[in-house]
Each structure stands twice: as C-alpha cells, then as structure tokens.
C-alpha cells in the first residue's frame, strides 16, 4: 500500500491541575483568554489548521483532566499521539516536580513506537503572574531538566498575555510532523519489520 | 505516581477480604468441583486455581470468586474462569451478575496480552486482554500467578515485553505471515462482524433472561446466548494500559481467528457437531461461536433502530407535568410533617419536578438526608445537631496552624486543588460571580470539610460541580454540606481512585446499549468505542455540564426519585445516544470524532423529550435491563458492611 500523506497531527497537553492547559490551548487556537474556564472533566480537543513547508496540516490538540486520579483514562486519549506538551506553573514547585511523572505516564500509556525519541515539549506557564515575583521555579532549573531528558525544547509562556504561545506551538507542530513522518516511513514497510520485533522477543522469564 | 501501580485496586480492605475468603473457600470447593467433571476426555486441564476473584465494585462483599483453568484441547489452549455458585438466595452478587463476568473457553488465539500486577498490599492480579478488550482484573487470592504464566508458556508462544517486565504478549507477530498481514490494510482484514439487524435484536431481548448455571438450554437458546456473548462488553470493563496492544494486533487477531475457525471446522466437522464438543457441554463455546458470524464489508448503511419509537405499543414515556408546587406539596404531609406516601411523592416529582422555591424543602428528602417519616420537630432538632457536628468537622482543618500545615502535604495539596476549582465552578452564575464572592468561599469550606469528613475519598475534580447546585438551593452552609454528604453516599464511588464506580457504570451502559440497540452497540464495537469514555463526563457529574443550570436542577431531582429505576441516568445516556445514532453511524464517527461530538452536545440537549425516552427505554429494558447493571453500581447505595473500610490511601488528594 502506498504511503499516504499524513495531514492530522495529534498533540496531547499534560500537566497538573490548574497549570493552564485549557488556557494555552484556547489562546493558541482561538486567541482568547478567559478567567472562567472550568476544570476539564474527561478530555476534549480543539483543532487548528497549520501550514508548514507549503503543506496544510490539522493540528488536533488534546486537553485532559489534570488530577492524577483520572490518569487511567489516558490510554484512550493518548493513543496515536505525535507530540506531547508538558506544562507546569512556574509559580508552583509541585507542578514542576510532577513533570517527570507525566512524561513517564504518557510513555507507558501511549506506548509510542520509539519512546527514546518521542517528541516532548515543556512549557513553563503563568510567567505573567505578579510580574514574576511569585515565581519559584527558575528558567535555569527548568532548562536543566529538559536538557537531561534528551534536549526537550522549552518555552516560558503566558496563556493570559499570549506570550510565546504561538512560538511554542510552532515547534510543537514541527516536531509532531517530524514524528508523524518517521512513523509514516516506518509503518507501511512490511518487509523488514522482522528484525526489531524479534529481537525484543526475549523469552518469558517467569 | 508510579506507572505500574496506578491501576492497582489493592487496599487494606483486600486483606480483610482475603482472610474471610480463605475460610469460606473450603466449602466452596465441593460445589465447584462438579464443573471439572464435565470436562471432556480429549481436553486436558493443565492448570487449575481456586479462589481467583474479580472485584466488580470496591465492596468486598460483592467480590466474585471462581475457578481459573487452562484447558488444552488438541493444539489449542483455552482459559476458563467460572464463578462459584451462589450459596444463599439473598447473596450478592446474584447468579445473574456472576454470569456477566464468566469467562468461557476463551481461546488463546484470541488473547493479545496478559499483564501481571504486584501491588505492595493485597494480592497479585493479572489483566487479560482479548479481542481488543480487557477482562476485569483476576486476583489470585491463593497465589499462583507465576505458575499460571509458566503453564501458558509451555503451551503457547508468549513473550515478555521488552519495555515492561510484567507484560506478556501472546500471539506477538511471531508468524511472518501474520506480521505481514497485520501491517497491510487488506480489505479482508478490515471486514467486520455485522449483526443481522432485526433478528439479533429480538434475540438479545429474549435471551437476556438469566441462564441457569446448570440449566438445560435448547439449541436456539444456546445460539442466542452464544451470539450475545460474542458481543460481550464485559471484556471492556477495565480501563487499562493494555488497550493499545489491541490496536497493534487487531488485524493479526482477525487472521488468527479465521485460521482458528477453519481448523476447528476441519477437526470437528460442521456446526452441528461442533456444538456438541466438550466446550458446549459446559455451555462454554461462546467464543468459538463468535467467530462463526458472517463477514461483510465495513461500509454499511445505518442499521435501523431496534426499538422504533413510533411503533412501540408500550405506554410511551408519559408527558411531563408541571412542577410540584407548595399547595400540592402540603397534601403529601400529615399534620406533624411526615410524608404519608413517599412513593406517590417520588412519582409526582419524577413526572414534573419541583417548583424552584420548594426545592430547599424537598431536596433533603430526595437525597436521603431527611427520612420521609420524620416529623417537622424531629427535623428541626436534627438541624441543630447536624449544624454543630458540621462545625466540629470544619474546625478540624480550620485549627491547622501554618506550622502544622507546613508538615501536612496532603492537606496543602487538597486545599490547593479545592481553591483552584471553586473559582472556576459556575462563576457565570450570579450566585457565584464576582471577586470575593462569599458563596465561593462557602463552597471551598464545604469541600474542604468534606475531605476531612471522608478523608479516604478526599477531594476530586467534579465534586465542586456536584456541590454547586446543592449550595445554590440550600443556601445554608451546614444543610448544604449534609445534603452533599448524602449525595456522595451514592455518587462517591465515581471518584474512587481505582475508578471502580465509573467502570461499573460504563460497563452497565455498554450492556444496556447492547440490550436496547444492538446495531449501535456493534457499531461502537467495530469502531473501538466500547469503552464509552465519551460518556465519562455525563456520568461523573450527572450531566451537570450538559444542560443549563435550571435544567440540571430539574434533571437531578427527577433522577433522585429513583423512579422507575435507581439507574435512570444510564437510560438518559442511551436516550441521548439514540437521538443521535443515525448521525453517529451515518457519518462513521471514530472515537475522537464521537468524543468531540458528544462534548459539543453540551447545552444542545432538550431535557423533557430525553426524560420521556429514558423512561420508555427503562420500561422496555425491564428486568433484563436491571440484570445488566452490576450490583453496587452508583448511585446504588453500597452494601452495609462495617467491617470493610475502603482505604484510598495512596496519593489521594
């Protein structure tokens, strides 16, 4: 079967409750900010057409509930993701500490074909709050974490003020596309699948 | 937060149940032995383990223990799990409930993976994923997981996932032919099982009566039962990380199933003969029969609704009435303020709701906070007692000093989460709008007090949505708190960490759709939508986000009457889905599109017609409907058992 051009790119936004996932998504897609977003229950997504290298893509951006208790739903929502956006609130230490959990949980539940190279992006949101005075996570610290996790691109954003949101999502789209295309090359190829999956098939040691 | 532990259902209650279970297992063994005597001579039981148990709800009393067997017949390996018989007539779960979960002769060619879980507390359990869906976790009360896996390894190809040492993949593309087939979109592989529309519907309606565990079935009944089983959403009850593997192996599985069926036919002759083989003697051939359904191309016209609304001869959902007013309300009360005929009152409210200004008086009854036979004087007294009780609990967190809070992470996190959520709950409503709104403060205090009143459950997103209308109606802080407590007596399991309350509702929903609209059910099945996650928000907060505020109040009071069913909300889901079934199937919505579509129905649903439909569907489903809902499914009250204390300890906020 000839390889079809991929036009839908699926992006998942994860992070603690209240870090601004819904706001970032709405700021990017609708250029709007509201103080009145409700806590997300279950999951929802918005789509946006993006042009990249003269091709049109639909970016499907998934917004999920931030409370840990709902994480087991992820399996239904994360599948087929092309990029994962990890968001924390620069004013809340815990939301930064949890980034690693979100990342690992995503890899477990979405189970991408190449977890080592799956594209993540980290956003430190709410940099506008109190003119930066209530900030507890430094940019340096955040960048160090991103570097340690395989050079994850990092942006400091404000969904409220629209700071860096567009820029971040351009990188998100670009990396999602890159991931999508790699999969495209990988998937329809039926000839040499053998080697990889067979190597993994180590005996059951039980 | 640890990836592999997240799905553990284990808790301290498990230990308590284990010791109970251990003592009763001796007596149970005798009765269950009979089932093994029906095994045929050419089938060999290669593994047998008693006291393998599923936990359909979080209540230990409702756990279902059974016998797990691996049976080898020819070159095929099958797995069965048969629950023990009910010992007393009033035992819960009933035989019918158990039948929901029975695993009958599941061929390993249909199994994609088995995941072993080893919780720090409690028993090891495994989750088996077959035909794209996960069975409920099987808890090995008497150990034996290792032996189970080792036995499987002896008979079928099983490999350990390189990414997860607890994950064992079965049929993992080892055959080069399968591998090739699986990665090609062959038209044949895409073909799906299609119901024979009208026929299968009536079958489903008929055969949902409970089959006696050792009863004699006519071959027609057996066929029906087999067909029903082939669409059994029980396989989907567990929400877990394994689902993804079903996608990978979908095509491969269909190929294997095909091969398996062919082999079977070759080995045992035509259908007639197959029905008499060992498995069906035990009424266990459902899974084989499931392969015996005609294969047609995927694109099909939308099958007609098995319940044609216009043609039905039943009394259709009665016209809605005007809401109950003050004058009429007084006719329900005796001179001391007791409600003389609670059922008449519930019926009246079911058909009409309550006038807004009367809600404050009526809701506490509907919620179960006031008992119907209490007098005015008793309620007045209770009010003052409960008020001081509330203050006492509230004082528990109010007296936490900043120094103490510093060393009390769980408290700080809970408080933080509540603070974040109350300022984004119904703020467009004048009752809650504006800066420093005192009602928002009240909501915060009530939720935080609740998280101390029920520390195990704590606070979970969605609770503020449930509290908001109650506070809006009751106004009084203490009254609102106790009404909220009453509501969560029933809906609390929606927020369990293991999501058991949600699982059982999603499971029941799937069963009911199968019963009431099998074409729609089959559509969901073919499109990987059987998890019903698109209804998650509806169920979690009782449609709170789906209707305007006033309509939500109306819907809730109608649901709280529990007339004609405790689970009318599930029929409301089906009524809404049915209204849109032609669009859903006609446009071939996939999971994502369906989720988006359902989310966007918010604010677009006309309540009254939906309530009439829901009533009619509930009447149609009758006892078969009730039997499709596992015991303890919210909002059913939990079974009283003071010895079981459900501990939600890990990472609860």
Q: Describe it for me?
A:
Chain B: One of its GO terms (cellular component) is cytoplasm. By secondary structure, chain A is α/β, with parallel strands linked by helices. Chain A has 7 helices and 6 strands, in the order βαββαβααβαβαα. Chain A has helices at 21-30, 74-78, 93-97, 99-110, 139-148, 165-186, 193-200, and strands at 8-15, 43-52, 55-64, 83-89, 120-125, 154-156. Chain A is globular and about 40 Å long. Chain B has 3 domains: 3-296, PH-domain like, CATH 2.30.29; 375-495, Helicase, Ruva Protein, domain 3 (Orthogonal Bundle), CATH 1.10.8.270; 500-627, Ypt/Rab-GAP domain of gyp1p, domain 3 (Cyclin A, domain 1). Chain B is built from 28 helices and 12 strands. In chain B, strands 1, 2, 3, 4, 5, 6, 7, 8, 9 and 10 form a 10-stranded antiparallel sheet that branches. In chain B, strands 11-12 form a two-stranded antiparallel ribbon. The longest helix of chain B has 26 residues, at 12-37. At the A-B interface, β2, α2, α4 and α7 of A face α3, β9, α4, α8 and α17 of B.
The string of secondary-structure elements of chain A, in order, is EHEEHEHHEHEHH
Name the structural class of chain A: alpha/beta
Rg value of chain B:
26 Å
CATH homologous superfamily classification of chain A: P-loop containing nucleotide triphosphate hydrolases
The structural domain count of chain A equals 1
What CATH calls the topology of the largest domain in chain B is PH-domain like
Q: How many β strands of chain A by DSSP?
A: 6
Largest sheet of chain B: 10 strands, antiparallel
What is the CATH architecture annotation of the largest domain in chain B?
Roll
Which topology of chain A does CATH recognise? Rossmann fold
Number of strands of chain B: 12
Rg of chain A, rounded, reads 18 Å
Count of helical regions of chain A? 7
Number of domains of chain B: 3
CATH class identity of chain A: Alpha Beta
**Which whole number gives the mean pLDDT of chain A?**
86
Task: Report the oligomer.
Answer: heterodimer
